[in-house]
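Extended Data, panel c. Modelled sequence:
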Amino acid sequence: MKRIFLFLVTNIAVMVTLGIVANVLCIVMGTTVEELIGPEYASLAIFAFVYGFVGAIISLLLSKPMAKFACRAQVIDGSEGETERWLVATVEDLARRANVKMPEVAIYPGAANAFATGAFRNHALVAVSTDIMGQMTKEELRAVLGHEMSHVANGDMVTLTLIQGVLNAFVIFFSRVLASILSNAGRGEGSRRGNGGMYFLLVMVLDICLGILASLVVFAFSRRREYAADAGSARLLGSPSSMIAALRRLGNLQPGTLPNSLKAFGIAEGRKTSIWSTHPSLDDRITALQNLTTTLP
């Protein structure tokens, strides 16, 4: 219900924004909404909405097999050895505490990192690197797994896809509307046909520029998710101390680089942060957990 509500609110916000921008353009150009948003733009809005979500949804549905392939992750069931048995049992316990079904558990070769992905919260994948398993204590690793299980329980993969889909539609619609207006500036009716090269060049440039701005929104949301997942781990474990210790441990390691499609779902991206980061800095996350201590039951 929460994800559906967010989806509806986001779409309403986009439609309101479209209306505001259309009215501003009308005032500047001395025209009317009816003249600007004709059947062509109505069709474009439908196309942008459908096309914008298709890529995001397909990416979400393929997220588990693509993650396994990209990271060379091997799914385990606990029969492989004592370490694997502990890992599976820990994830099972955390899944029960988070009230979600047991996800697939995998190990992949690489530097210290972990991630969760999957199209559905009850059919997810949680994976850890060989290096993070060797560098962390069991309590620290348990906190990392709690962080990833919180992502799963919060439905972060689905929510991020919905936001990305809306932003995709936003970019597709506005890049073509603005390209049409700019390429037709000072020209007569039907001039776009004779100025197609300029139109398509503007579309490409605007796709890139608006896509970059849309990415900033996704990155900002991703950073907020990390704080929530850290707090979720603290609640699953009953204390933030293990999560704080895990983040401090990561501060002394070089976090492994994940493929771009998984970067937002890793446990860490780097020590510092910026508007282009999917994760807050480790120091900021530790401070947030320390402030959380007084609010835990």
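The first strand starts at residue 74 and ends at 76. This feature is highlighted in the accompanying rendering.
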